[in-house]
Records
---
Amino acid sequence: MAKQIEVSDLDAYYGSHKAIEGITMTIEPRSVTAFIGPSGCGKSTFLRTLNRMHEVIPGARVDGKILLEDQDLYGDDIDPVSVRRTVGMVFQRPNPFPTMSIFDNVAAGLRLNGRRSKSELEGIVESSLKDANLWNEVKDRLNKPGSGLSGGQQQRLCIARAIAVSPAVLLMDEPCSALDPISTLAIEDLISKLKNEYTIVIVTHNMQQAARVSDKTAFFNLAGQGQPGKLIEMDETSKIFTNPTQKATEDYITGRFG
Amino acid sequence: MTTTIHVLQPVSMGRRVKNRIVQGLVWLAFAIAVVPLVSVIWLVVTNGLKRFDLEFLTHSMRNIGPRDAGGGAYHAILGTLEQVGLATLISVPIGLLTAIYLVEYGSGGRLARSISFFVDVMTGIPSVVAGLFVLAFWVLILGLGYSGFAGAIALSILMLPTVVRSAEEMLRLVPNELREASYALGVPKWKTIMRVVLPTAFTGIITGVMLAIARVAGETAPLLLTVFITDSINSDPFDGPQMGLPLYVFDQAQRPNITATDRAWTGALTLILIVMLLNLVARLISWWRAPAKGR
């Protein structure tokens, strides 16, 4: 079930360096929200705070509040492992588990989180691969290693792996940056299909992509080198790309940056 | 502004000559490095084959007089397998857990740094010192006497740093992306290590363990101090003196008779074969578990 995310006054740090500051936003369920902005502005850092992956890095910590429906992700008694089960993630570079077959890769999240019957697993793997538009390409070689697929197929395999555990939210960190245009198109189609069931947040450097797939767009920027990144504005995608409120946003999307 | 004329030059004579010279030096260095290896193998094989028979592999030295031919190294082969096996059982779990701590949990902390330091110190321990330590502590202070197990303890002290270092390196080679992918699926850290990190590093860890085994299988000094020497079969590594192949070679080579010297050569050949066989098994295991293979 898709869930709404409410972020209020969030700061994130790497050691003593403040990477993002004062972010407040609401991410709607069953929609695609895109984060755009120059490199180093903290989009990816912010994305990783949404499923508590940020704190995996030594010395990294977070201040502020993130509500998933009505639960605080950073509440004292919340287990980060259960947060990550609810909020799934797809990474920039496809990273299938090299020791596992295609089937095992998709089943990994379920298997590692407890025993399931074989028939149940088979059903979930098939439906996840179908949802990821990969089933027809791999159904005859489910026992082959996942690393033998092409880059675009590997990324769809990673998406299938992420949705197999049926999360409420799916975070995507530049999922197409390592892919060719055809694979990118396949994944964008997939995103539009998946938004009927999931809350999707995508970080992208490709503004056409943000304009194509997202309902809302958030623009991040930083005042200068070493300064924390901030949310400049967030609105309907059509508005951001045609009539942004802030001058910085307009400069960025029209390519007149800096 | 002067215009540069671009003419593509052939490779100059000087560079060709230098290339030839360096190539020649590299080949020479390789040949020099291979000479001792080949000559050792050649000597051991030619001298060892004389007595490499069924009797040698199935009989001990019990009731073999000083001038008698015959006799064998069954007791020594058995002893070496038991001692090295026990040493592996002791050092691999400890070493692997240490490496996991260093890579996955310690990451630059004070404890991890001091463990790293002491592992380096352990690498430099001469094998006879490890033997002396076990002799002093296990055999003399605790009074538990000579046994195969005492030898195994000494060998595991020597194996431990090699296992830790190689396992640590292999674990560090596992891309962080795989750990993150696993965390992002809501898999706890310990399960990520067990099911994702260790299987990915498995092949390399096995290779490292095999190198460590090969290193200690030929150790003589620590065994001399802890296992002692016997001519009889003692299959119980926890009680009484045992034999080991290195000890057997040492013992037989000291004797004045040609029959004994022949047995020493064959013992050395057997030891080399055992180490090679173990390596082969390790290769097979790695091949069988290789990640990118269509199964």
---
Amino acid sequence: MAVIQSPSLQEKVFSQPRSRPHWRQVSTWMLAKVLRAVFTLIGVAVAVFIILRMIPGNQITASLGVSAGLLTAAQVRALDHFYGIGEPVTLQFWHWADGILHGNLGLSVQSGRTVTSLIGAALPVTVELAVLSMIIGLALGVGLGTVAAASPGRIGDWLGQAVALFGLGVPSFVIGSGLVAVLATVFHYFPSSRGYAPLGENPWLNFQQLIFPALTLGIGVAAAVLRTTRGAMLDISRLPFVRSATGKGLNRRAVVIRHILRNALVPIVTMSGIQFGYLLGGTVIVEQIFVLPGLGRLLLTAINEHDYAVAQGVTLVFAAGFVIVNIITDALYAVIDPRVRS
Amino acid sequence: MTTGLEQLHPASQRTVFSKGSILARLWRRPNGKAGLIILAVFVLLGLASLVGLSPYAPNAQNVFHGLKGPSASHLFGTDAYGRDVLSRVQSGIVLSLQISVVAVVICTALGTLGGVVAGYLGSWISAAIMGVTDLLFAIPSILLALAIVTALGHGWFNSAMAVGIGYTPIFVRVVRGPVLAVRQADYVRAGYLLGYSRTRLLFRHVLPAVWSVLAVQVTLALGWAVLTEASLSFLGLGPPPPAASLGLMVSEGTNLAGVAWWLLVAPAVAVVALVVGFNLVGDGLRDALDLAGDRG
Amino acid sequence: MSGLSVGLQRRGVAIPLVHDVSLDVGAGERLGIVGESGSGKSLTMLAVMGLLNPPLCATGGSIVLEGKELLAGGDAALRRARGVAMGMIYQDPMTSLNPMIRIGTQVAEGLRAHGVGRDEARERSRKALIEVGLTDAHKVERLYPHQLSGGMRQRVMIASALVTAPKLLIADEPTTALDVTIQRQILRLVAKLQKERNMAVVWATHDLGVVAQFAHRVAVMYAGRVVEIAPTRSLFRQPEHPYSAALLGSLPSRATPGKARMNQIPGIPPDPTRLPVGCPFHPRCAQATQRCRVESPALTERRSGSMAACFVPPENWTRQNRP
């Protein structure tokens, strides 16, 4: 087939695929993100250290309770030395930071166990809870948000708006308390009464124990994601390419999912990243309500018992989790949006 | 002196924030109207207790009337110590609002200052502020509040500090965005060319543009503050008992929900109403002021 | 298409934007639609495709394509007709392609929607890309829209409209966003493809030059109405409506370069919500009579074979508006 007029030089230049350099750019971009994340974590470590040093009261005497009064001065000094308490603050921080780099977060004053082992035991619970909550939140949020955006002003929309209002307005401790109360009094069901069942040992009981806390946290995520999904999809549905897709004879479903939702993914991912932060904070409350031995509960116990090393360690792990999710979010942008890659 | 430039300014029409007009616009929105009604009911309910319009003193115990269900003498029943739940919820609302308002004053002041400085001055100060903000963002805000309240000790003002500082990073970001945008807008550049001082530009051009964003954010922050304060006291980190704190009441109510559901429901409804109310008004404001952003 | 009206539905009240527009186009014919921005060209085109977004909607009339009524047929009928029976090229090639999806997929999409298998769809979309002058189709189809220039994107748009071999191609100012040399390429490309496939093409534009080169017949639109339909040649030789004449008069004259000043049409197009009584053009018309201020003229047959909506025949015009 003869071509009447060949494309201009400029068009030819543009038509060269440049996929390899793109990916190289992406990797330097990601490296910058990771470096930034590391700096953030160092900052968080310093901040946490400072805040927790402001807490009044000696942690050793706190841990020993009444018996602290019986200690001789020499004994106190020996204990202080063992836990590294008598040192100047800067030296304490240095030891702590040095320990972190060697995977040593210090010792729990209360239990005598290493902070690393305590966190190691609690981390899987919280990770599982967070992942399950995120799945529930995203499924509900994106699903209902899509329905709401596809039929603005109809029943689906009103339902979605109601869920959003509920999820944003009802604090997780109210949802959690309500769930516990209803389960216990109406169904005489206490999923946590037999003690925590790890995923590896009793998956079914583990699921029963985690589904309600995950639901509690997930609804909050769902509400925010729903609103973002709906808003972004409504904005995008007014863009010209949606019209041109419809003009090709695509059915409504294909237009909504392939064209509108696809383009709404970037704000949805952003919102999900933000929500993950709230979700991490929420685990403290929800693990407390549902008696789950996760990081949140560990942190709260540590705070109540003035167990600095544990509280520091857990907060650092939370911050690391948030930072990692931020990096994943940034990486997802590159996967979703071809424009980010160039 | 007033020049043509001032009239060109898009926000200058709005600088006169005559209370009537903004309230009227809010009232025309269904979400704003619903939010205002809910808030009015519950805020008035709380404030009524301050002028003695509550059935009992919040901490008056009556052990013989413990765990009584709703009745004519105790509309929302009594708790395990025989204290009137309605009266306690009323004073809980007051406490919650007191903490939230102080917290929002703190975060608005700190956040606006930080945001304006970071957006307007640029340079290394901006970098430092944004660095600290990023850092605080990496700690979930409730954890930050938790850590701060632990460090400062329990008490209503410390709760307010913790909640306020926890929300400050959000204010910094929210304020910095429009400040940056306005600073680079043509009418502000024109102001530089006309030789206006930085202070004049800041107060006459930059701040008015931030004003509407700030109004929305303050309302949403109030909702968040109520929620966070209640969460903290739910975890036992709020004002210590016997202060009537809504979060603590929910926490106590959960354990007794089997025998006395009203202990859980009454404070929970109050918290939810306040949070939903502030959120609805915030959304309504955003619509009424026609701000870009996610409109749910 | 006959008696089509488009309105803006707001709080139950319809604000009419396009009034009773009747156009017809036969196979192998190229119809041009000219008018200023806001004259209702785009709305008419979109209404034919059934692509008006709420609150806009077609409020009356009928659209008949190959004997089938589309307006009454509901969404499913429209959807089947889109692509197969009619295709459209849009105003802005920069935003009319989905930025997230590869070119090849976007071109093939129309075929897939009408039940063509994956491999065949890919084969045919590659052919279509080559046909519109993107000869390295196997490379282009793997790119994303942001990696293409404006001209290439418009070629892609044309490919994705033509890949399903529609009988009617609607082009809504497809060249306005492009620079002049590319405009010419696109215009020639569509003309060539139109001839090869014996398609009907409707080309909306505000550019009379484009119409002169391209169209067999021209419809002139003003304030949501067709004020004149004429074979291109007779329109340029003897416009029957003062507005057409004024449009032609505003073209830079080739005969007297630099000497004659370009004629402007005085005034501005009316606000569609506050159309004047009578002929909508009368406030700007040099020929307006008392009757024009009261009564709205209908399209009537003229000697030249044109149809025009004007009470004053050109013989009686004052000099001012003569081309």
---
Amino acid sequence: MKNYYSWIDTAFVKYVPQPLQHLAANEQAKRLGGKIVFYNGEDFKTLNNHSVIKSKIEQKPEIDGIIFFTLKQFFNNGKLNLLFLKWILERGYEVHFSRENVKICSKEELDTLFPLLYATHHVTQRDEPRQVWKPIWNLMPN
Amino acid sequence: MNTIHEQNFLEHGFCIIDVENISKLTELREKIFQKAKEVIGYQGNNVEEFFNNFHNYHLEGAELNEKRMSIINYCTQNLDVGKTIYEIFPQTIIDFIGPDIVAQKTTNLVIQQPHDPNAEALHRDSPANSPFEITVWLPLVDVYKTKSMYLLPLPHSKKAIELLGENYEAFVAFAKQHSQSIEIPFGKALFFWQGLIHGVPVNVENETRWSLNIRYKNIFSPCGTKGLIEFFDMLRLSPLAKIAFEYEKKSYAQETSETSK
């Protein structure tokens, strides 16, 4: 059975409470034939640089991958953080998104998925009024 | 899509289109039939007899839903229905959407048995879906009268939507008065705009309807509340988009490199 970390979206807890994010992560792990062995999330100050998960990965945990709540956790400073996605994959860990039901197990899969990732980021930036999430942006570092 | 279809679509918000690749459609139906046979335990080989007389198995409620979900999961995991339906109507879908297309991740399979009271109420798909999507409603058997679905042509849908916010009873009465039942033989499909009011009557014919429905949109068109990557998979890209994405992939990696320092 595969083992996964669940990395909840700290910024979104106000709108999708932690218990719901856990349900989604557990369901995603089940779909992948695995289970969650540990969960955590970023501090508000590390949302854009992923320092907490980065340090966890650098400890080389014996897991198969990380289940994030949403792809939006990789929309950092107005950009799609493709490099950090690659960084995780290069260390041998799968990346999953429970909200989107998306799995990325290799750099080749990331390449194939790039148009959809790019377009999702682009369309979200273009069409989703920033005002909607004002309470969140107000809490986030600039 | 010929000019008559285009005119019909602009005027009514829907049109009925002949398949462009009948062998693909027949093959898709056959695969669904084989899975359904296995799930139900049917021994025969007549697909239309099986689908049309499915109600004679007397499956209802949770039991019916469990078997239906088993077939849907099979379709999602094994048949790539979004791609196959595109291949059945390639030019029509490109005419509607353009060449850069995403397809709904999960195709809906509806099994509407005679006298099943759980028929879908009057509704429109947009919102919550994007008004920039097209729905392909593809019957796997001949559909007619109450074995089919009904919809309100564009001008009536517009009026009905006005009533929807004011008086729900008036909305329902107006919709029933102006709804149009759609007759479609196997080998054709209904293409309709997401803002059209539509619904399903209680099927009082003596046959069961099996139909698929799926949505397509341009990759960069606005989304509704259903997010792009949550609801859609990549289907095809134009040569220009392929080059552009390759170009962007490189520059994105560099830009994100800067931001991740």
---
Amino acid sequence: MAHDPGPHEPHHHPHADHDHGHDHPHHGSALSPMELRVRALESILVEKGYVEPAAMDALIETYETRIGPRNGARVVARAWVDPAYRERLLADGTAAIRELGIGGRGGEHMVVVANTPEEHNLVVCTLCSCYPWPVLGLPPVWYKSPPYRSRAVIDPRGVLEEFGVALPATTRIRVWDSTAELRFMVLPMRPEGTEDLDEAALADLVTRDAMIGTGLPQGGRA
Amino acid sequence: MNGGQDLGGMHGFGPVAPEADEPRFHAEWERRVFALAMAMGFTGAWNLDASRAARESLNPGEYMLASYYEIWFRALEKQVLAHGLVEGAELSAGAALAPPAPVARVLHAEQVAPLFARGFPSDREQPGPARFAVGDEVSAKTINPTGHTRLPRYVRGRTGTVERVHGAFVFPDTNADLAGEAPQWLYTVRFSGLELWGEDADPGLTVSVGAFESYLEPARRRAA
């Protein structure tokens, strides 16, 4: 597969153009070199007793199916309807998010930053892939890839335009580079005309990208 | 280290290109690498900072071209070899040939939900009073450590303002070397776009980073 280059053929995988080749199923029974190497390591680690296969299954199930951006959307919707909660959320993100039963690995120390008409927040991790797992799940490939990590800090407005977010020229951009064990989540502005919606309906408007800062809630304006 | 991971401010990688369907994992081997890295991290043979250091130690050209879980896999191979948990001959053979080395812990399935819902906090008892306060002007030191650091190149030597004081946290630079947690005060320091990037910076842009106390010194000069 195009995204499974061996160690000596990195030119087969031009990461920057995002041509990951995921649309091409592997034909026949032959396994890719990467699949073979991973299988070999896994079987050694399991055989030696360092890794329990059932624990691997539990980890995969948890992070592939259980933990995702609906958690963060619940937090945002609560903050939109409950001013006291919003205040707690901005003062101590970890504790306020824990009030909703959400927390854990990759979100031990949460900072929530609020968008305003004057200021738009954008979260990146230039050095690796730090991301608030309990509220957003595992990060998408683009968040972990060189184009976003390199440009979010130097050309955030250009990055936002690629995501379809055209900020007014007067809106200042605040970028948060997750260089320590603090994980950031953006609290977007509540869209206008949503006064009649209840908390659950509001949560449905909250996109994952709105909580990274690369998007807006459905119906939201920059 | 000044490795391939320190990407902030680089040019030439092209547009950000989200995938249409954004799968969490693109192949079975990515799932396995994710789970192996998590489970091996729990053994106590190393820590998260050490894993980041291992990933950063890849040749920069390879780091920038490899897919994410490929980076994780190559680092994991390096780590199990370096810690004597696996021998090179075993990797070649694809099978265990030698008896296992002792590890402190093995992650069991029933532990995953409670442990990962609790998380692994890295805040620690404060080592003493904080050197800086909110509003202080500080400069990021000009440092170029060959080991792990969380001070990105694009802020080194630049002057910014302390905007938050977070308490003491595990210091990644020593922890990555398994040389101790050596907790330090952690600050959020805010830099202007003008200070970081010059006259062409987006007007009004600021960039905030998490900075450990030893990365900082009182401002050497006024920020731009």
